[in-house]
Amino acid sequence: MIRGEYANVIVDISHEKVDRPFMYRIPSELSDRVEEGSCVTVPFGRGNTLRKAYVVQIKEEPEIEPEKIKSIAGISEKDQGVDELMMRLAAWMRRRYGSTMIAALKTVLPAREKVGKLKKREVIRLWSAEECENAAETCEQKHQSAKARVLRELQTEELLPEDLLIRKLHISRPTLLSLEKQGAVEIREIEYYRNPVSGKEGKGVRHPLSEEQQAVVDGVLSDFDAGIKKTYLLHGITGAGKTEVYMDLIEGCIERGRQAIVLIPEIALTYQTLLRFYKRFGDRVSVLNSTLSAGEKYDQCMRARNGEIDVIIGPRSALFTPFPKVGLIVIDEEHETTYKSEGNPRYHARETAIYLAGLHGASVVLGSATPSVDTYYKAQNGEYGYFRLTKRLTGGALPEVHISDMREELRAGNKSMFSRKLQELMEERLSKKEQIMLFLNRRGYAGFISCRSCGEVLKCPHCDVSLSEHRGGKLICHYCGYETPTVKLCPKCGSKYISGFRAGTQQVEEKLRQMYPQARVLRMDADTTKTKDSYETILEAFSSGEADILVGTQMIVKGHDFPNVTLVGALAADMSLFASDFRSAERTFELLTQAAGRAGRGEKKGEVVIQTYQPEHYGIVTAAAQDYEAFYEEEMEYRDLGGYPPAAHLMAVLVTAPNEDRAEEAAKTLADLTRKRAERNLQEGRGRLFVIGPAEATIAKINDVYRRVFYIKGSDLQEILNVREVLEAELESPAFAGDRIPVTAAFDLDPMYGF
Ligand code: ADP
Ligand code: ZN
Ligand code: ZN
Fold it and tell me: Which of 99, 279, 519, 623 is most exposed, with minimal Cβ within 10 Å?
């Protein structure tokens, strides 16, 4: 805990005011109780009226003339208002993830923007269902597939939010306007979705739950009523009925006078899913998405605060919706790495949700087909409740998965980037006019070296993560800094085909055009999705059948349902398998399993080809067999052995400076300081710590700023957090800072990717 005589407080809690705090003196009788996040009363203004205020920073030195500083009058009892909860949440985030109280507060508070209400339009059907059906058929014949898609939806829905059609069904505004001109629909501007999507069946569209589903709902709600507020893992493949369970739980939560927060990664927030929520909860539900302006977001927060809505759905930041009394937090696709913020503080939405639920007395439900190892571990040891949905309720059978051994391909003289099996299946699909998705995983790829002949991957002898190729012909471990000269021949089999995998999506696209000139190919990666709508445009084009093959990075694998896709190819499964961090096998397993789920969503059976140089690696084998438990067993053994999360905690410390020597020296000083503490802890028999590094960061220099990283491992979380505070204090100290070249440090607890 930070000690000091002075406190910066904010009197009016809002995003804008946190940068302009007022300084007060902490009277000695309160010094034990005042900490960051405390709610206090202070004399304010000329009349010294007592106002409620929140402490955002404790300081040792006064920042203004001491005689002008008034004293804190008292500490106020916890009132459990929304502000107080948000303040406590921010204080917890700051303690756990580092950064500052001010940055943490800015994360949890909405920016106050005057800009008016959320402007929305709704599309109202004027034609009969039959007219829509006939028109849809005509459009399909004329290949006006976007129009046809809207008309098909209008057959069953009399009213649809325009935003949903545009953003999620990939329909352009001109398409809708042209339908309006034809008299098929009316587009009306509304202030909010007053009465969204009633549809023919009305609100009562609900399935009687299966026995498995009912057991989850009963289990969670009866715990809740008995005062047991827990976290549960809901484990079940796509189509097993998880969303249906969430909706019944939300309903139970609303019946109990509470509100619900539903986190879904933006990319998985599909049209069908949103429509189901709108239909079930009407105007009591609101959707948060990244395209809303700050003003619109603020408006939504106000609605939540005033009790105008009960349910919010959105990505990570929806967690900070200021509901008065949350009863349930659902995190769908809980394994997604986007739940970890890469901003400041580097919080994980899952952990933060669980803490927030504790403040509200709410339950948490985590859903996934491929749970994160962290979550499954906690479900196994009883910390979380566990439910499994085993049956797929709709949608076809699981696809057939083929593994292509790329070493074999080389031996057979095939040096191309596609295996013979993949080529054969691609040709078949092209002739049958079915669609193909091919993806390369780039994220987290840091130039690992492998042998194309025997599959050997060069790894760090100390950390068991792959080495990365660096300038000057070096191979480096980004955890411990181990270095070795790059090799020309495979150390295992002597082959000269040893190198990093370099092909990108663009080369794949070019190759496909050469091989299949008649095929229409679309590419989706960071380059082709730079402009605002390009992402939607590409998806729309592919889903309306304007292309035969979609090539992309892993962004094409998640979330989208293309019923005509019957073949998915993972071109370089090893690329993510050997990214140089401890979660790479988990990410590969998850990605391949999700990819397999993309094939054969419609009536036609799907097939998947996984290309790899390591066909016997457990990450590949278990993904092909869709066997989560087998994967988990192997992976947990590796984590246990290496002391990686969830077996222990790991904190990455990134040290940056505009001068290479300074960065190196500062990283070494901080790492040595930690090592000293580790030695002392060992002697005193408490809080064991292991320090690894420092080493060059994955990206050793960005914008002329040099980056060094080191890692602290240990099972005592509190001790790791203590170390962070010691390091933070060291960074501020005159010896370290002074008038020398400035150094900054960033901390990442249980990171998703290395720095
Ligand atoms: P998940 O979220 O696990 O992918 P969903 O809840 O979306 O699963 O369910 C998959 C499909 O099965 C949906 O079309 C849904 O409407 C349907 N479904 C869900 N529960 C039932 C049920 N009890 N009876 C019939 N159909 C159901
Ligand atoms: Zn080899
Ligand atoms: Zn190493």
Answer: 519
Residue 222, C-beta contacts closer than 8 angstroms, at least 6 positions apart: none
Determine if ligand 1 sits within 6 Å of the CB of residue 104.
Answer: no
- Enumerate the CATH 3.40.50.300 domain ranges in the chain, comma separated: 211-389, 400-445+501-640
CB of 243 sitting under 6 A from ligand 1: yes
The architecture of the domain spanning 649-749 is 2-Layer Sandwich (3.30)
Q: Residue 242: CB within 6 Å of ligand 1? A: yes
Indicate if the pLDDT at residue 168 is higher than 80: no
668 pLDDT exceeds 90? Answer: yes
Instruction: Please give the average per-residue pLDDT across 409-416, as a whole number.
Output: 90
Mutate to test the pocket of ligand 1, among 244, 251, 264 (most ligand atoms within 8 A of CB): 244
Per cent of the chain over pLDDT 90 is: 47
Q: What superfamily does domain 211-389 belong to in CATH?
A: P-loop containing nucleotide triphosphate hydrolases (3.40.50.300)
pLDDT of 427 over the 70 cut: yes
Angle (CA) 230-92-16 rounded to 5° is 120
Q: Which residues surround ligand 3, an ion (CB under 5 A)?
A: 460, 462-463, 477, 479-480, 482
Does the 6-108 domain belong in CATH 3.40.50.720?
no
What is the pTM for the complete model shown?
0.86
Q: Average pLDDT, whole number, for the chain?
A: 87
**Alpha-carbon 702 to chain mean position:** 24
pLDDT: is 600 or 388 the higher one? Answer: 388
Q: What is the pLDDT of residues 699-711, one digit of tens each?
A: 788 878 899 999 9
Listed in order, the ranges of the chain carrying CATH 3.40.1440.60 are 6-108
Tens digits of residue pLDDT in 347-365: 999 999 999 999 999 999 9
Q: Which of 604, 537, 615, 538 is nearest to 570 (CA)?
A: 615
Residue ranges of the chain assigned to CATH 3.30.70.360: 649-749
Helix ranges restricted to H, 209-270: 211-225, 242-255
pLDDT tens digits, 94-106 = 999 988 888 999 8
**Does CATH number 2.40.50.90 belong to domain 400-445+501-640?**
no
Relative orientation angle of helices 242-255 and 271-281, to the nearest 10 degrees:
30
